[in-house]
Specification:
By secondary structure, the chain is an alpha/beta fold. It has 2 domains: 152 residues, NAD(P)-binding Rossmann-like Domain (Rossmann fold, 3-Layer(aba) Sandwich); 183 residues, Dihydrodipicolinate Reductase, domain 2. It is built from 10 helices and 16 strands. Strands 15-8-9-10-7-11-12-13-14-16 form a 10-stranded mixed beta sheet. Strands 3-2-1-4-5-6 form a 6-stranded parallel beta sheet, with helices on both faces. The longest helix is centred in the last third of the chain and has 20 residues. About 5% of the residues have low confidence. It binds nicotinamide-adenine-dinucleotide. Nicotinamide-adenine-dinucleotide binds next to α1. The site of nicotinamide-adenine-dinucleotide has 22 residues, from α1.
Length: 350
């Protein structure tokens, strides 16, 4: 396989993590080469220089648009820039991985899907928990029947953040919980109701409490907060015979059954590394006959943005809103469950 020349656009908090991963993959394997890092802030690039040493740094990503050596970009710039920058690269026939959320508006997200198709490019969304072995373990547990009939899901996505200007918590923290609900239930919500508010500033919502109703009678309660001093990325599944609790950061999965608490074996993995390698493999197989499913494709990203829009509408209009996912957009295929033991799930008493 030829090395994939990838450029990272946006080298802030998340972009630096992506750069570190790509450099590590390039050091340990042969698949990817970090071709360039672009950030409009000289300060951000100076910090990168100190942290990563000399690289092909650019202040203007536009210099990379027509560079034939660039095959792919990983977009880690602020949410508001995703649509514009991703469109420009897709129009040049580059492959693009856009950090979540794919875009600020769902029609922009679906337009990116269209552009990728038109130009034969791979479009991925940074739904990193698609690659989380903890989520895979939880799905496996649900599929095994050990929880009995699934009743409802509870997701807690919280952590402290300073007052944010031009950002609100639903767009920022909401994508992962909604993506996880889709991954676990294989459906999109039918209806959403949401309450929330900003406490320290009127600039944007800092807390949101969301109730989402899925087909089949499954419900999900989602708590988002930038005010909670404790960071949580937790998913709980409540069933008739048991409750499963997953800490998505530690990839620690626990099963509660009558009178027993058991730890379910999950081999923790590096989710960001897997996401980047998955992007590279999607590109590798893109033009070949061999099938390699894109597990975090643009349609998934655009559908998540549609759900976020519905959530904000519910909050603003103070009512339950019907979710309308465009027809004909496929739900991502179920994925295999690497990194886990064969059924039944392996458990050890706590
Ligand atoms: N998958 C995850 O779990 C995860 C976690 C954190 C952030 N993110 C996503 O990553 C993205 C970046 O978030 P962050 O926390 O790193 O933000 P950040 O503000 O720390 O970094 C953004 C960087 O982009 C640069 N930038 C702004 N406009 C630009 C432009 N036009 N061209 C090039 N560079 C530009 C800024 O100078 C800054 O260095 C967001 O979309 C966010 O949602 C994803």
């Amino acid at each position: 396989m030829n090395r994939l020349n990838i450029a990272v656009i946006g080298a802030g908090y998340w972009g630096k993590k992506v750069i570190a991963q790509i450099l590590d993959i390039a050091r340990t394997g042969e698949e990817i080469n970090l071709y360039s890092v672009a950030d409009s802030s000289p300060i951000a690039l100076e910090q990168c220089r100190k942290e990563f040493g000399p690289l092909n740094y650019r202040l203007d990503y536009r210099e990379l648009l027509s560079d034939p050596k660039v095959s792919a970009v990983h977009l880690c710039s602020p949410n508001q820039t995703h649509f514009e920058i991703a469109s420009e690269f897709l129009r040049e026939g580059k492959h693009v991985l856009v950090e979540k959320p794919l875009a600020m508006k769902s029609r922009e997200g679906y337009e990116l899907v269209r552009l990728a198709k038109e130009h034969g490019s791979v479009l991925c969304t940074g739904h990193v928990h698609r690659f989380n072995n903890g989520i895979r373990g939880l799905r496996r547990l649900m599929d095994s029947g050990v929880l009995g009939d699934i009743y409802y899901l509870r997701l807690k996505w919280t952590g402290f953040m300073a007052i944010q200007n031009n950002r609100e918590v639903i767009t920022d923290l909401g994508p992962h919980p909604f993506d996880i609900c889709n991954n676990l239930l294989e459906t999109w919500p039918k209806k959403i109701s949401c309450k929330g508010r900003g406490y320290r500033s009127s600039a944007g919502y800092e807390m949101a409490s969301i109730y989402s109703e899925h087909p089949g009678g499954y419900d999900a309660g989602i708590e988002l907060s930038w005010l909670d001093m404790e960071k949580h990325r937790d998913v709980t599944v409540v069933g008739s015979d048991g409750t499963a609790e997953l800490d998505c950061i530690e990839q620690r999965l626990v099963l509660h059954r009558k009178g027993a608490v058991e730890r379910v074996m999950v081999v923790p993995n590096n989710t960001l590394r897997e996401e980047i390698l998955h992007f590279a493999r999607c590109i590798e197989y893109n033009s070949s006959a061999e099938h390699y499913p894109n597990r975090a494709d643009g349609t998934l990203g655009a559908n998540v943005v549609r759900v976020l829009e519905t959530t904000k509408k519910s909050l603003e209009e103070e009512r339950t809103i019907q979710v309308e996912i465009p027809r004909g957009e496929p739900i991502p295929a179920s994925e295999p469950m690497p990194g886990l033991h064969a059924e039944p799930p392996s458990m050890g008493s706590l």
